[in-house]
Amino acid sequence: PRLPRTPTQRSRRDRREVKGLTMGDAVQTRRQLAISAYNNASDILDRSELSEEDAYRALCEALASRALWEPIGNAMNLLIGDWQVARALTVNGMAEDAVTLLESAIARAIENAVDDWLIASLHEGYSRALLNADDERYGDVYMVTVQLISGISDLEDRSIIESQFADLPMP
User: Fold this and answer.
1) Which end of the chain has the least Cβ crowding within 10 Å, N or C?
2) How many CA atoms lie within 13 A of 22 on its CB side?
3) What residue ranges in the chain does DSSP mark as E strands?
4) Measured between alpha carbons, how far is residue 91 from residues 24, 75, 76, 125 in Å?
5) Which residue, among 76, 120, 111, 83, has the nearest Cα to 98 in the 3D structure?
6) How far apart are CA 99 and CA 109, in angstroms?
7) Does pLDDT of 69 surpass 80?
């Protein structure tokens, strides 16, 4: 008689179906969880005042969303996640870490030729992180960001990024 198959011996079909869920169901569930965590973090980060607990919760939600996108998301999903994680890092007093994350994200955005609004948005986050890190590059990046925002082709996208950028002081 044959012994029952071990987990490593299961067929591809067996691995795709977990308690009645197909791989497509699992991806859709993961996508919904990622979107929900992103929205939770955004709701917190959009508040005019944040408690320490709120800032921490925003970071947890942003990290959860980014991690959930990792195996299923495209370049845009991952870069938007990086932008949100950087914003949450910044409000948690970890602006230097946000700077590092956004430098990497901007390089990947250029490499992946993403939309103009996303490049501008990443630079908005980069400007914000540099300001909070008291980094001397803030002024130069601020001016680049202004140019990138003015170059966004879609007026609605431009308006959204302008509103995110509006609270940063001119150097």
Assistant:
1) N
2) 3
3) none
4) 36, 25, 23, 11
5) 83
6) 15
7) yes
